[in-house]
Amino acid sequence: MIYHLHNPNEATMGRFARNREWRARPFWMLNTFRYLPGDAATQAARSYGRRMRSILEGVGAHVVMQAPVARTAIGDRDWGAAALVAYPDPEAFHTMATSTALADTSRDRIASFADQYLIPVSPGFLPGYAPDAPVRPRADIRTWDRASLETTPNAFIGDHHTQMSAGRAAALLDDPRFDHTQPVWMLNLLKYTGGDRAQHDAYVAAGGQSFLGRQFGLRVAYSARATFPTLIGDIDWDSVAMVAYPSVHHFLTMGAHPDYIRIHRGRIEGLERTSIVAMQPRVVKL
Fold it and tell me: How far apart are CA 131 and CA 237, in angstroms?
């Protein structure tokens, strides 16, 4: 069986097609992309995207969320775009992945892709989530710059693998593709320490993404109920979540709050590995 994809994990692809828990059920596919540099790669990526829309329609799939603007805040892979695609079932994905139509896109894919994750996840944004609903943070929100990032204690800034350097945070603030007056989503890829989520769940229960987070406008848009091993990529993530903030400044202000700094140890100890990708997505279909 030939899968016309970017470096697929073929054994995992086969297990996904046969898995009883996923078979004949709708699912979403998380895609993260790192593109090759240069104008030629950019044009090839645009061509690939146009052709993929038609291919997806042919198997009853559609794009749920598209984030052409993305940047890794925390983690060792520099992602530049992301998307969620809804499939009617794994059989539809298998049909698409082995089709001659997808094979015909190989030139564009090779010319544009440097790296990719492809992760099956359970479908559905959280009940009641509305991206255009007004958000009214109760805390005072600070405007951050390079100097304040370097001098102000912040749970998200440091040299642990669950943190980013002050320089990386400043690069996110300086990225001209981001409009920092607009909402940002943080895509969280989570691998729990020892495969046990209990410690990370205790951090969440302590306020990391509940009452404390809501003071800064945090809203959880998506939290995977199930995550299948990665079909493309070298890490099998335990869970995936997407958390929306009114801006990057809200996210950083939360990280500097003393109560968040106090509970953040649970996140550090609970995650063996993580990646947080900042995105300004377009929600195509709720």
Answer: 26
Average pLDDT estimate for 21-33: 97
Residue-level length of the chain: 286
Mean pLDDT of 118-135: 91
Q: Would you state the structure tokens that stand for residue 57, as one six-digit string?
A: 């329609």
Domains of the chain: 10-121 (3.30.70.100), 146-283 (3.30.70.100)
Rounded-to-integer distance, Cα 247 and Cα 255, Å: 13
pLDDT of residue 212: 83
Of 195, 221, 207, 194, which is closest to residue 254 (Cα–Cα)? Answer: 207
Q: By three-state DSSP, how is residue 64 classified? A: strand
Secondary structure of residue 187 in the 3-state scheme: strand
Residue 106: name the closest of 155, 152, 51 by CA: 51
For residue 71, which phi and psi values (nearest 5 degrees)? -155, 135
Strands (E), 14-112: 27-35, 62-67, 70-74, 81-87
How much is the pLDDT for 286?
Answer: 67
The Cα–Cα gap between 25 and 220 comes to 24
Per-residue model confidence as pLDDT tens digits over 154-168: 999 999 999 999 999
The pLDDT-based confidence of 1 (bands split at 50, 70, 90) is: low
pLDDT tens digits, one per residue of 247-277: 999 999 999 999 999 999 999 999 999 999 9
